[in-house]
From TrEMBL:
Gene3D superfamilies: 3.30.300.30, N-terminal domain of ligase-like. Belongs to the ATP-dependent AMP-binding enzyme family. Its EC number is 6.2.1.1. CoA binds at residues 191-194, 309, 523, 584. Residues 83-469 form the AMP-dependent synthetase/ligase domain. The modification N6-acetyllysine is found at residue 609. It comes from the Bacteria. ATP binds at residues 385-387, 409-414, 500, 515, 526. Mg(2+) binds at residues 537, 539, 542. This is Acetyl-coenzyme A synthetase. Residues 531-609 form the AMP-binding enzyme C-terminal domain. Catalyzes the conversion of acetate into acetyl-CoA (AcCoA), an essential intermediate at the junction of anabolic and catabolic pathways. AcsA undergoes a two-step reaction. In the first half reaction, AcsA combines acetate with ATP to form acetyl-adenylate (AcAMP) intermediate. In the second half reaction, it can then transfer the acetyl group from AcAMP to the sulfhydryl group of CoA, forming the product AcCoA. It comes from Roseovarius pacificus.
Length: 648
């Protein structure tokens, strides 16, 4: 891994909210006096009744309870709309960019957003939804998705968004999982030039439903759809029946705001519960500081609202801050691999936030797609979702950022609500591949994997835990507090266990080495599979790689690499040898893969993460029980990999 550093320019730092000195000062205050720090920063949002108590947290297994600002009351939707009306009612809140570049983009002002949210909230009420009820949102990336989220928040209903790429089965499980009263969907959803039949999927998901779940349908395309015998409603018809007056419900800080399932990379997805006050403080504060967002900037997070990244950085964080946020319906490669950059140019994007998987895919398509667009408005680039390999970081920096834009590599999880470890663009010298340093109030620790002992020295390697709570932390697993405690608080007592492995370098920078499950032990040497993958993708002929361990008679564990080649490259035994030699020279002899399987495709979750647990099973030659595969984007690739497995 590279240790080259990229400090922010003096010019950038001078205009930033936070420079290096300010970071040190604020970070010290946040951990030395959390109550003082958060009683001040908790005021960044509007409270109906101000909180008097800042924090009440217990991380002890068996008694885990997390509360922030607990006696305060607020309404999250009012924070994202009403409070901006006086000062920026006519400012664009949401820019909607449709799937087809030829179709017109929409610019929705804060005033229009407010009206749309109030009306949708009244429709929800008419359909019998009230405070505490659950609403499943199964929508494409259209403004109605944001209206629906905020409409729930306005009336105190709890939303659970299901990514529109999920199958009827996965959708059904999530509808039942929270006993939803209402599902909101669209007729069909265009994406990358293809259409998904969302309403049909809902019909299938509700086929065996006994509790008469209602379904509200947004007319997106006007395609033919089938209605159920009862309980289906068009949004455009229902909205005619309501007015735009809907007073926001007064909610307690600890009332649930939403449920969201994790992406399922490591197992059965968990229904993560976030509450109102602390989450909003965290989403808005990280949005402002991590991206150095200033009034008037155009912010674009390319995630889907079906993932936590979309919740915190398309909707709640930006809108709480009165930002202009982009919602993009399409995909990075439609109509061609220049779409992201076309949209950046068209809407004069200032902050751009995407995932390493997208960066790697676009990098493989060549620089022409980037270079033909004017990206001069960009100020900050961000990434999230996986460790970013230095190759991809460098391409992002040089080709997209012209070597001049700070990159923020943000480490966080569905569970954390927002960024935990990330550079601040005006303060933190970046190192390609490192998420760098903790955000305010975040106290990461590295524990010895086996003993669970906290490692005091600056340089450390082990599992990444958090010593104390932060306002955006998840509060429980929906309906299963025991699972919450068992997953995050049982193995390492007294800490929140992230499930990720990490290394802390001599500068105190954190390097995420992947999931703890992905750390392998080869002849007594522990290594993160991410490191071997990084070396493989640094080879010019390799597009993507996934590495897992498998039982090895002599070494304990052997290294099994799945390799996807660049378009046009042919697999051969010579190339296999070339890659082995390459990894040896990049990392060392110990990291040389024992088995390399050519993989035309890798099993990925619908958020684009490689599902290593499936690859591990195949490598172990134990593919009878692959576990939950309902979150796979393309189950077909698994059969191909089993068919051509190397360890049999
Ligand atoms: P599940 O918990 O169901 O297995 P998941 O962990 O993939 O799914 P998410 O909450 O979407 O679900 O992902 C969080 C994880 O993504 C982190 O724990 C980490 O492994 C990885 N991750 C996110 N951002 C980064 C980053 N900047 N660098 C390294 N890893 C990251
Ligand atoms: Mg996880």
């Amino acid at each position: 891994m590279s240790d080259k550093t990229y400090p922010p320019s003096a010019e950038f730092a001078a205009k930033a909210h936070v420079d290096a000195a300010r970071y040190d000062e604020m970070y010290a205050a946040s951990v030395n006096d959390p109550d003082g720090f958060w009683s001040e920063h908790g005021k960044r949002i509007d409270w109906i009744k101000p909180f008097s108590k800042v924090k009440d947290v217990n991380f002890d297994f068996g008694n885990v309870a997390i509360k922030w600002f607990e006696d305060g009351t607020l309404n999250v939707a009012a924070n994202c709309t009403d409070r901006h009306l006086a000062t920026r009612g006519d400012q664009t809140a949401i820019i909607w960019e449709p799937d087809e570049p030829g179709d017109e983009a929409q610019h929705i002002t804060y005033r229009q957003l407010h009206e749309n949210v109030c009306k949708m909230a009244n429709v929800f009420k008419n359909l019998g939804v009230g405070k505490g009820d659950r609403v499943v949102i199964y929508l494409p990336m259209i403004p109605e998705a944001a209206y629906a989220m905020l409409a729930c928040a306005r009336i105190g209903a709890i939303h659970s968004i299901v990514f529109a790429g999920f199958s009827p089965d996965a959708l059904g499980a999530r509808i039942n999982g929270c006993d939803a009263k209402l599902v909101i969907t669209a007729d069909t959803a265009p994406r990358g030039g293809r259409k998904t039949k969302l309403k049909d999927n809902v019909n299938q998901a509700l086929l065996h439903d006994v509790d008469d779940v209602k379904c509200l349908v947004v007319k997106r395309t006007g395609d033919q759809i089938a209605w159920r015998s009862e309980g289906d409603y068009w949004l455009h018809e229902e909205i005619e029946k309501v007015d735009a007056d809907c007073p926001p419900e007064e909610m307690s800080a600890e009332d649930p705001l939403f449920i969201l399932y994790t992406s399922g990379s490591t197992g059965q997805p968990k229904g993560v519960v976030h509450t109102s006050g602390g989450y909003l403080v965290w989403a808005s504060m990280t949005h402002q500081y991590t991206f150095d967002y200033h009034d008037g900037d155009i912010f674009w997070c390319t995630a889907d609202v079906g993932w936590v990244t979309g919740h915190s950085y398309i909707v709640y964080g930006p809108l709480a801050n009165g930002a202009t946020t982009i919602m993009f319906e399409g995909v990075p490669t439609y109509p061609d691999a220049g779409r992201f950059w076309a949209v950046c140019e068209k809407h004069k994007v200032n902050q751009f936030y995407t995932a390493p998987t997208a960066i790697r895919a676009l990098m493989g398509q060549g620089n022409d797609f980037v270079e033909k667009y004017d990206l001069s408005d960009l100020k900050v680039l961000g990434t999230v979702g996986e460790p970013i390999n230095p190759e991809a970081w460098n391409w992002y920096n040089e080709v997209v950022g012209n070597g001049k834009r700070p990159i923020v590599d943000t480490w966080w999880q569905t569970e954390t609500g927002g960024h935990l470890i990330t550079p601040l663009p005006g303060a933190t010298p970046a190192k390609p591949g490192s998420a760098t340093v903790p955000f305010f109030g975040v106290e990461p620790v590295v524990l010895e994997t086996e003993s669970g002992k906290e490692i005091d020295s600056t340089e450390a390697e082990g599992v990444l835990c958090l010593k104390d709570s932060w306002p955006g932390q998840m509060r429980t697993v929906w309906g299963d507090h025991d699972r919450f405690e068992a997953t995050y608080f049982q193995q390492y007592k007294g800490y929140y266990f992230s499930g990720d492995g990490c290394r802390r370098d001599a500068d105190g920078y954190y390097w995420i080495t992947g999931r703890v499950d992905d750390v392998i032990n080869v002849s007594g040497h522990r290594m993160g599979t991410a490191e071997v993958e990084s070396a493989l993708v640094a080879h010019a002929k390799v597009a993507e790689a996934a590495v897992v361990g498998y039982p090895h008679d002599i070494k304990g564990q052997g290294i099994y690499a799945y390799v996807t080649l660049m378009t046009g490259e042919e697999p051969s035994d010579d190339l296999r040898k070339e890659l082995e030699t390459w990894v040896r020279s990049e990392i060392g002899p110990i990291a040389k893969p024992d088995l390399i399987q050519w993989a035309p495709g890798l099993p990925k979750t619908r958020s684009g993460k490689i599902m290593r647990r499936i690859l591990r099973k195949i490598a172990e030659n134990d593919f009878g029980s692959l576990g939950d595969t309902s979150t796979l984007a393309d189950p077909g690739v698994v059969d191909e990999l089993i068919e051509n497995r190397m360890n049999r």
